[in-house]
Amino acid sequence: MEVAELLDRLESNQPEIVEESKKKFREIFLNTKESWLVNGLCDYYLSTSSSRSVEILVGVREPHDRHLFDRLSDSLKGSSKLQTLTLLGHIVRRHPAWLHKIAHHSLLKELLKLLKVETDILPLMTALLVLIVLLPMIPDLIGGYLQDIFEVFSRLAAWNTNNPNKLPEEHLLHLQVGLYTLFHRLYGMYPCNFLSYLRHEYGQIENLGIFSHTIKPMLDTVKMHPLLVTASKDAETATSRWMKMEHHDVILECAKFASLDTLERPREEVSHQGLPPTSRKRYSLEHSSLESAYQHQIKGNPSLNPTSSQVTQKEDWSPSIFCGMDTPPPQEVVPTSIPQTPNSQSYIVSSSVPHQEGTSPPEAAIEATPETTPIKVIDSLALNVRSKMSGVPPTSPLRSIANEISIPNSPVHMEPTAPVPGGKEWLVAKPVPEKNGFRFDSAETSGTVSSHLDSSQEDQEVLEIVRQGEQWSIDTQPKQSSVLPSSQRQCDSVLEEFHPPHMDDYEECEQESGSPCTSGGLHMPTSRSMREFAHRVHQQHRQRCYSQCTTDTERSYLAGFSTGSSPGEGSAALLHSRVQRANSCPDMKRGPVLPGAEANIGRTLEEKEELEDLEGALSNLDVNEQPHTTNGREEENDQLSQEFASVTFMKQMATASTQTVDHWSPLPYEHLFLGAFPPVEHAQTHNGEMKASTAPSPAPLCHHTELFPRYSPYAMLDKYIETVIQGHGKDDRDTKKANVQGLESELKTVKEQLTLLNIQLQFERHRREAHAERNRRLLGKSRSNRALEEHNSALRDQLSLLQKDIENLYNEREKKKKEVQITEQQLQETINYWQSQCNTHQKDIKELRRKNELLEHELKQAKEKATTNMKELQQVKSVFFEVTNEMQHAVAEASAGQQLRSNLEELQKELILMGELQQKYRDRFSQLPLLRHYEEEQAHLHHSYREELKGVNEMLESRNSLLEAAKARIIELDSVVTRRDMIIADQKRILKQVKEEYQKKLEAVESKCDTHRAIRQRMESHVLELYHQLDIAEKTSKVKGSRSPDSSAAHEVSVISAGSADKPSFSPHSSPLSESLGSAEGSLSGILSGKDVGMKNLQVIVDQPEQPSADQQQPVTSQQSASMDIAAADNSIPEEEG
Amino acid sequence: MAADERNFRASYYEKVGCRSVEEKKSLEILLKDNKTLDKVKLQQFCLRFTVPGIYRNLVWKVLFDVLPIHVDSHKFVMEQREQEYSDLVHSLHFMRMANDQTPKPHLFLLMWLLETGKLKYSWNTQINNTLYQSLRSISQSLLNVFDNSVDIYWISKGFFQFVDKFYNDVPKLTEYTWNLLEKEDQILFNHLLDIGAWNVIPLQSWLCSCFAGVISESSLGKVWDKLAGGSCKILVFVAVVILRTLRRNLLSCKMSDNVLNCLNNIPEETAEIIVNKAIEMWQQYGSLLTPGAGPDNLKAHLPVSRNKPAQGTA
After folding, report:
1. CA–CA dist A117, A426 (Å, integer)
2. Coiled-coil annotation: which residues (chain A) (predicted)?
3. Does the pLDDT value for residue A891 go beyond 90?
4. If you write DSSP's letter for every residue of A383-399 in order, what string do you get?
5. Which of A158, A536, A896, B262 could be B249's S-S partner, Cβ–Cβ 3.0 to 4.6 Å?
6. CB atoms within 10 A of CB A100
7. Do residue B95 and residue A1018 have CB atoms under 8 angstroms apart?
8. pLDDT in tens, B254-311
C-alpha cells in the first residue's frame, strides 16, 4: 500500500516529491533485506519503464543487488525480455559498485545465452550493447565467458547468412554497428584470444565468405595490437592486466587500436603521441581556416557542414552522437545554457556558435554540460601542437583567405580560432567515407562504386575549389602564397610518410590473422591491397581537401540553393554567405515545413505546427545569438592578437573546439545510417525516390535537399520521438506514406528502429561519459604536469642562480689564493728570522747547560755537607734533650724537698702546741676531784629549774583555759548583745507601732478634743448670743416694765419656749430673768440627765469670763473670732452694766 | 498584689465570673493578717474589687481614717469616736439645734458642721444649701446600709470630706462627663443637647451626692467602694452609663421634664446593671489598674490648696 503510494508519488511532476519518495525508497531498502521491494520495483519498471524507478534500482545496496540480478535473470527467461534488458542496460551503464558481481551470477550466462539464441533484433541489440558496455567494466572477470562471447560474435557476424532477409535494412545497420563495436572491444581487450578464435573459426573454408565479407573489413579498420606480440592468451585474461585500468581506460584502449577508424580513435591520441601532424590534423586545420574564412557562410548555412558530413560519414558514431538524446528537448535547454557561454568565454561563442547558429542551439547546451569540459585540456594540447604546426601554414590558400578575412597581421591567431571546431568536426566526419567505402565494398560492390564516385567527385570539386582559392589567395597575398606550396608539399610528404606504417601494421595484421586462411581468401588480400591503395589515394586527396570537400559540399549546396555562386570566389561567397545568414532564421523556420511540403511525408498538421513552434523558438534564440556572436568574434580577434601565445587562450580555444565537436556529433548520426545503408539509399535513389525512407533516414534528404539537413538531427530526433509517442497517428501517417510512397516501412520496424536507436544512443552516451571521465582525469594529470613543469622551470631558475653563485665563489677563491700566497711569503721571512734567532738561542742554551751542570755538581757537594752537618746537629740535639730532661727532674725533686721542709716546720709547731695542750690537760686532770662538787649543785639547780618550769606551765594552762572561757563568754555575750539589739530593734519597732497606735489614739482623742473645743466654742457663741438676747431683754424690761416683771417674765418664758421650739427668734420682749429661768431649766434638765455634764456645763459657764483672755491667743477661725468679738462686745456691755 | 500572689487561680476566677470567691479571702487575709492594716493595699483592693458587705463597714472606716490601721487600738479609738459622737449630739441637743425627732441625716450634717466649725448662726438656712442636701442624702443612704449610727456618722463624715475635696472640681467632672458621653454615644448626646436636657439633668447633685438616692443602696455600695478607694472619676462613668442605659427612654423623651422623670426612677435591677457597666467602663478607661497611675488621676490633678484646708479642718 505504502509502496504503491510511493510509486505514485515517484511519478509526480514535482521534483521535491520525487526526491522525497526516492529518499523513502532508499530508506526502505536500507531497512529491509528481503527481495520483495526489488522485485516490485523491477515489475514496476517492466510495466511502466519508469526512469525514476531505474534510478532507485541502481542505487540499491548490498543484499539487494543479488535480488536484482536474480530477478533480472528470472525475467530474462520470461516474456518481457526487452524491458529486462533495457533495465539491465540502464543498470550496467550506471555502473553501480556491485556490478562486478554480475560475472559470478547466472545473469551473465543468461545474457550470453540470449545472445546466442535470440533472433529478434531488439532484445538482441539491447543485449549486445549491454554486453559491450559490460565488457570494459569487468574485464578481469570476463575471461571465463570469452569463448561464449566469441561465439556470439561469430553468430552475429554470420547473421545474414544464418538469418537471411529477416531484418529490415535499418535494423541490420544497427546490428552491424553493434557487431563492429563488439569486434573492436574484443580486439582491443583480448587480441590474442580473439585472433586465435578467429583463426580457429574462420580458418575453415565454409566460413571464408563471412570472414571476407564481414570480418575482414573490420580487421581492416584496426591496427596491429602490441599485445599480439608481447602477451599470450592467458596473460591477457589475467587480472593483473586489468588491475590498474578503469572501464574508460579500457574503452579508450580499444578505440586506440581502431586506428583506421577515426571514429573509434580518440582524438587526443594524435597530439598526445606527438606524432607528426597527421593528415587529419592538417585537414582539420585547413578546414578550420577555410571555415574561418567562410564562417559567415557556414553560419548562414549551418546545415551545410552536417550535410557534407552526412554525405561522407555513414557509420560515424562519434561518442557524442547521442548527446542530443541525452539533453532531450534541445530548445528548452538552450536558454539556460546559452547565457553561460558568453559569460565564460566570448571566444567559445564566436568559434563554436557560428557553426551551430542556424542549426542547433542544443550545441550550446552541450557546451554548458559538464561532460564536455574535461576535453578542454586534451584538446588544448592538441591545439598547441596544431598551433605550432600552423605556424608553418600547411594549406595556405584557404588559410590566407581566412587570415584576410579575420585579421591579416595575425594569421596564426586565426587558425586557432576557427580550426579547432572545424578540425574536430572534420576529424569526426572525414574518415567515415573511407569506412563507408569499405562497407560498401564489402557489403555490396555496387554501393562502393557509387560512394567512391560520390566522394571522388566531391573531392575533385573540392580540389578545384582549393586551387581556385589558392589562386585567389596568391593573388591577394603573394607573400604567403610563396610559402604555401612548400608547406603543401611537406604535408603531402608527411602524409605519405605517415601512412605507410598504417599500411604495414595493417598488412602485418592481415598477414598474421589471415595467414591460416590464405587458401580460402587468396583474392581477398589483393582486393584489400587494391582497396588500400585506393584508399590511400583517397586519403591523400582527402586529407588535404577534405575540409574543402565539405566546404565544397557546402558550396555546392549553397550553389544549389543560392544561385550557385562559385565557391572559389571568396568575396562573392562571403557576401553571399552574409546574405544567407540573414536568411538563416527564416530558413530554419521553413526547414521543417519544406520537407513536409515537398515530400508530403505523412505528418499531421499538428506536428508541423509543433515543429514550427520549436523552430520559432530556435530562431528567436538564434536571433539573440547573432549579435552576440559577431561581437564576440570581433572581440575575440582582438583578444587573439593580444594574447596569442598564452596557454589559457589555448585552453579557451580548446574548450570551444571540444564543444563544437560534441555538439556537432549528433549530426553525423544520420549519416551513420546512410553509411550503414548505402545500398538501401542507393537503391532508393536509384528508384528515384529521395524521401523513400521515412523520417529516420534523413540521409537521402541530406543528399538531395539542403533544407532537410538544415533542420538538423534534433529536428529529426524530435520527429522520431513524436512518432513514437503518437503511435496511432503515426500509424495513419504511415499508411498515408505507404499510400503516397510505394516503399514504406512498417510501423513495427519503425518502432523497433526507434528503440534500437534509443539503445544505440544510450550506448553511445555511455561511451561518451566514459570518455568524459577519462578526459577529466587527463585534465587533472595535465594540470599536475603543468604544475610540475612550472616547478621544473622554477628549479631551473634556481639552478642558474646557483651556478652564478658558484662562479662568484670561484672568483672569490682565486682572490683568496693570491692573498694566501702573499701571506705565505711573509710567513717565510719571519720563519727565517726566527730560525737564526733560534740558532743563537740554542748556543746560549748549550752554554747555560754546561754551567748548569757545574752548578749542579757544586750543589751536590753542598748537599752532602749539609747532610753531615745535619747529622751532627741531631746528635747534639739529642744530648741537649737528655740534659734538659735530667735538669727538669732535678728541679722537681728540689721543689718537693722544699715543700717537705715547710711541712716539717709546721708539724713541729703542731707538736709543740700539742705538747702544751697535753700539759694543760694534765693540769686539768689534776684538778678533776675539785669539779665533783659542782656537779651536785648543778643537779639541784636543774631540779629546781624543772620545778619552776612545771609551775609556769600549769599557770599557762590555767590561763589558757581562762582565756577560752572568756572567749566563750564573749561569744555568748555577743550573741546576747545581738539578741538584745534585735529585741531592742523589735522593741523600737513595737514602740514605734505603739507610738503610732497611740498617736492615732491621740489623734482620736485630739479630734475628740477638737470636737469638744468646737462644741465649746459653738456653745460659748451660743451663750454669748443668749447673753446678748438677755441684755436686750434686760434693757427692754428696764425700759418697759418694772411694773410687771413677773408677768413679763412669765411672758418671757413663754416666748423663749416658743423661740426654742421654733427658730431662735429673739424677741426683744423676753426678759433676762425668763432667760435665766430657761437656762436654769436647761441646766436642771442637764442635771437630770447627767450630773457631770451639767456640772461641766456649769463650769464652762462659770469659766467663760476667764476664757476669752486665754482663748485670745489661740488660732481661731474668722467666724469664731467674729463671734468672739461679738461675745466680747456683749460681755463688755453687761460688765459695764454690772 | 497580695491577692495575685496568694492564688494564681485568681485571674481565672475572674475570667470565669466568680469574682467574690477570691476577693473575700484575700480581703480576709488583708484584714486578719496583721495587727496593723495596710491602708494602701486596702485602697487598691477597693478600687479593684467590690468589698464584701461584712467588711465594708470596717474597710470604709479604716480608709476614711475613722479607725487607725492598728487593730489593737480600734476599740479605744472607737470609744473615743463614740464619746465624740455623743458629745456632738449632746451639744446639739443642748443648744437646742436638734432633738430626738431630728432626722438622723440632718443630725449628722449638723454634727459634721459643728465638728468642722462651719455651723453658723443661721444654720437652718445653711443646711438647705444644695451641697448639704446632697450630703444629707449620702447619710440617708448610709442609714440604709449600716445600723450603728456612730459608724454611719463617721463614714458619712468621710464621704462628706471626700465630696468636699472634689467639690470645686465638679464643673470639670461634668464637662468630662459630657465629653465622654459624646464619645461613647453621639446620638444620645446630640439628642440631649437638642432637647436642652443639659441643664435639666441634675449632674451636679448626682456627683455631690455620689448618686445617693439615685441608685439603690445595694448597688451603690460598689460605686462607693471605688470612692473609698480614692477615685472620684467613677462617678463620671456612672453618670454616663446611666444615660446610656436609659438611652431608649431618653431618646423617646422630647421634653426635658420627661428626662428628669426617667432619671429619677431607676429600678434596682437597672441600677445593678448600670453599676457593673460603669465599673467595667471605668476599668477600660484606664482606671487605677494600671500600675503607677496613682489612686486617681483627677485626684492627682486636684489643686493642693484644696487638700490642705480639708486636712486642716480634719
Report:
1. 40
2. 733-760, 785-876, 946-1015
3. yes
4. HHHHHHHHHS-SSHHHH
5. B262
6. 14
7. yes
8. 777 777 777 777 777 788 888 888 888 887 776 554 433 334 444 433 333 333 333 3
Report whether pLDDT(B185) > 60. Answer: yes
For A696-706, b/e burial (b = at least 16 CB within 10 A) is bbbbbbbbbbb
Q: For A1022-1032, what is the mean pLDDT?
A: 87
ipTM tops 0.85:
no
**What is the 8-class DSSP label of residue B304?**
H
pLDDT value at residue A86: 82
Sorted by where each begins, the domain ranges of chain A are 3-257
| List of chain A residues whose C-beta atoms are within 8 Å of the C-beta of residue B73 | 997-998, 1000-1001
Residue of B nearest to A1061 (CA): B96
B166-313 fold: Cyclin A; domain 1 (1.10.472)
What pLDDT was estimated at residue A19?
A: 84
Q: What is the mean pLDDT of residues B143-165?
A: 82
**Residues near A721 by beta carbon (within 8 Å), at least 6 away in sequence:** A754
- HEC assignment per residue over chain B: CHHHHHCCCHHHHHHHCCCHHHHHHHHHHHHHHCCECCHHHHHHHHHHCCCCHHHHHHHHHHHCCCCCCECCCHHHHHHHHHHHHHHHHHHHHHCCCCCCCCCHHHHHHHHHHHHHCCCCCCHHHHHCCHHHHHHHHHHHHHHHHCCCHHHHHHHHHHHHHHHHHHHHHHHHHHHHHHHHHHHHCHHHHHHHHHHCCCCCCCHHHHHHHCCECCECHHHHHHHHHHHHHCCCHHHHHHHHHHHHHCHHHHHHCCCHHHHHHHHHCCCHHHHHHHHHHHHHHHHHCCCCCCCCCCCCHHHHHCCHHHHHHHHHHC
For the record, the C-alpha cell of A934 comes out as: 659542782
With CA atoms as reference, the chain A residue closest to B96 would be A1060
Q: What is the mean pLDDT of residues A648-674?
A: 40
For residue A1038, the model assigns a pLDDT of 81
Which residues, numbered 1086 to 1125 in chain A, qualify as contacts with chain B under a Cβ-Cβ cut-off of 8 Å? Answer: 1086, 1093, 1097, 1117, 1119-1120, 1123
Domain A3-257: state its class: mainly alpha
For the stretch A478-512, pLDDT in tens is 444 333 333 333 333 333 333 333 444 434 434 44
Q: What is the pLDDT of residue A911?
A: 94
Q: Is B266 left (phi over 0), alpha (psi -120 to 50) or beta?
A: beta
Instruction: Name residue A553's amino acid.
Output: T
Which of A997, A1082, A1120 has the CB atom closest to B72's CB atom?
A997
Q: Please tell me which of the candidates B36, B87, B124 has its beta carbon nearest to residue A1011.
A: B87
A1004 with B80: Cβ contact below 8 A: yes
The CATH classification of domain B71-162, taken from the options 1.10.8.680, 1.10.150.130, 3.40.50.2300, 3.10.180.10: 1.10.8.680
How confident is the model over A716-732, as a mean pLDDT? 59
Enumerate the residues of chain B whose CB falls inside 8 A of the CB of residue A1001. Answer: 68, 73, 76-77, 80
A996 touches chain B (CB under 8 A): yes
Residue A683 one-letter amino acid = A
Domain boundaries, chain B: 71-162, 166-313
Residue A579: phi and psi, rounded to 5, are: -55, -45
Measuring CA to CA, which residue among B136, B130, B197 is closest to residue B170?
B130
Residue A977's pLDDT is: 92
Q: What is the mean pLDDT of residues B162-172?
A: 81
